[in-house]
Design a protein that fits this description.
single chain; MetI-like fold; globular
Length: 265
């Protein structure tokens, strides 16, 4: 029996075309020589040069990169610890509540998350800016790290740790020498996922940003409201490329299985 009928094949092609054809058109028109985004005027890279000479876009990109690097690193550490607590601590008091709070940002609308964080920062008198955006990104991205790492820890062979403990290693040493190397692909995948989510965020950053902390998606959105230009197409193409590389890397790392080897003492 054939796995794919003609109807299924057409459905898949139409589905992918609906999802990705607009992105393909955006990439093509980023190389348009014409100043009009809907009229093809020949191949040119002038808008990429113009993008590099636009100081506002460069500043926004630098803010976005710093926020993404810092928030992804902290979110990975917190998400990994949360995953360890959920997998290794067994049935502790408040586990169900803790698990629900860790997973809540996965299903909560970004508008609600952004608004709640905005109210929190206003209530405690925390001036909005670079650090509020970073904290907000840590808040919503650490749950993705926790889910990725938790799935890897659930299939981890505990006998490797037990062997290291029997050989005289402390629990902390056993974790860093045995457990962490084995689950590192999942940790790295979680970091890449958190990094790309931070790069791509617009809604939450819009609520929590302040003076001098305009991210690249916010800058793009503010310029698009005045009209789409080929320069914006070039910036969006670069952003799509970075996010695509991040997602593919996270997917590859998440599927990687390191050889168990012999436990180190």
């Amino acid at each position: 029996m054939r796995r794919f009928s003609a109807f299924n094949m057409v459905s898949v092609v139409l589905g992918f075309a609906f999802l990705y054809l607009p992105i393909v058109l955006l990439i093509i028109y980023s190389f348009n020589a014409s100043r009009l985004v809907t009229v093809w005027g020949g191949f040119s890279t002038r808008w990429y040069v113009s993008m590099l000479n636009n100081q506002q876009l460069i500043d926004a990109a630098w803010v976005t990169l710093r926020v993404a690097l810092l928030s992804a690193t902290v979110a990975t550490a917190l998400g990994t610890m949360a995953a360890i607590a959920l997998v290794r601590r067994g049935r502790f008091f408040g586990r169900t509540l803790f698990s629900g709070m860790v997973a809540a940002p996965l299903v909560m609308p970004e508008v609600i998350t952004g608004l709640s964080l905005l109210l929190l920062f206003v209530a405690i008198g925390f001036d909005r800016g670079f650090w509020t955006v970073t904290i907000a990104h840590i808040t919503f991205s650490m749950c993705f790290v926790a889910v990725v790492v938790q799935s890897r820890l659930s299939s981890f062979d505990r006998s490797l740790e037990e062997a290291a403990l029997d050989l005289g290693a402390t629990p902390l040493r056993a974790f860093f020498l045995v457990t962490l190397p084995v689950i590192f692909p999942a940790v790295a995948a979680g970091w890449m996922l958190a990094f790309t989510l931070s790069l791509d965020d617009l809604v939450i950053a819009s609520f929590t940003t302040g003076p001098g902390a305009t991210t690249l998606p916010m800058r793009i959105y503010s310029q698009v409201r005045l009209g789409v230009t080929p320069e914006i197409n070039a910036v969006s193409t670069v952003l799509v490329g970075i996010v695509t590389i991040g997602v593919l890397t996270a997917s590859i790392l998440g599927k990687t299985r390191r050889p168990s080897g012999r436990a180190a003492g």
